[in-house]
Amino acid sequence: MTAATTTTTTTRIIRDFDKPLWRRVLLTREMAIVALLLFVVIISASTVRGFGQPITLTYLLLDIAPILLIALPMTLVMITGEIDLSVGSMVGLSSVVTGALVQGGIPFEVAALAALLVGLVGGAFNGFLVTVVGLPSLAVTIGTLALFRGLAVGILGTAAVTEFPEFWTDLAKAKIAGTTVPVVMIPFLILLVAFILLLHYTPFGRGVYAIGLAKDAARFSGVHVERTKFILFALSGLVAAFAGVFYTLRYGSARGDNATGLELQVIAAVVLGGVSVFGGRGKIYGVVAAALLIGSLASALRLMNVTSDVINIITGALLIVSVVAASFLAWLQKSRRRPGRSTTGATSTAS
């Protein structure tokens, strides 16, 4: 009897690191968004009347501040392969909680802290349903989107609270001394540094990427998958509540329908900024650049008397193009990197 054994060896090469550092840094989707942002700003400043004015920068940053704030934790949530669609409703709920408590005679500072607590509890509720109960985040946050918005409308109805301490409303719209940059950018920059360090320079952040790439592999590697996701959902609710307090002060009004649809703008900024909808990929600076790009484009179009409906259409088209382009490039790279197979040899034995 003769038996033949053939050994086949597959060669795999990680090509992401066989290129120079400048190519790995500059030739990325995030840097493409940064370049597009610079292009839009330069073209708008030279062709759109009023775009280059300092007041335009002030109002642009005030308009997109809630998006910038909420996009930070949303980036980490989506890198794990999850999503939080309830953030816009949480902005509205925290706004209503602040307004209702102030209307009831509670000091604004206490009311704002209560709103932050509501955001933390709401985010933790999302995290509990996703990580403990095991429900998909898409279904959970669609449900809590309606729940939080219903609570907001139920508390105030169609009424609005407009009486807030003048000190806080002025501070929300104030600018840093000697600049055109709003004061709200200070807490944003603090949170930006904190989330960058958390995501890119800690074991927790590496675990976030690992969960998005392969949840089961991450779990067997020692990553606390459920705990990590729970923390991220809680942070998402907390930051959304902070954005809700700012939103209330900036517009001087607490209403149940505040920030309706804001979650779509946040998700558009995150996905356009290079975060994969399948998880495992993304960088915060790309998301910040994408939020600034969306805000700059909308500001320039408004100055050109373009209606908000057309602006939404353009933003949606830009998002679809970015997703399709990313998927196409991923498929193209995968086809080019498909490992080859070679037969190294065969050994025959006879008995």
From TrEMBL:
Major localization class: membrane
InterPro entries reported for this sequence: ABC_transp_permease (IPR001851)
Keywords: Cell inner membrane, Cell membrane, Membrane, Transmembrane, Transmembrane helix, Transport
Superkingdom of origin: Bacteria
Compartment annotation: Cell membrane
Transmembrane segments annotated in the record for this chain: 31-51, 57-78, 85-106, 112-135, 142-161, 181-201, 230-249, 261-278, 285-304, 310-332
The keyword Transmembrane helix belongs to this UniProt entry's keyword annotation: yes
Bilayer disposition of the protein: Multi-pass membrane protein
Name listed for the protein in its UniProt record: Autoinducer 2 import system permease protein LsrD
Protein species of origin: Microbacterium aurugineum
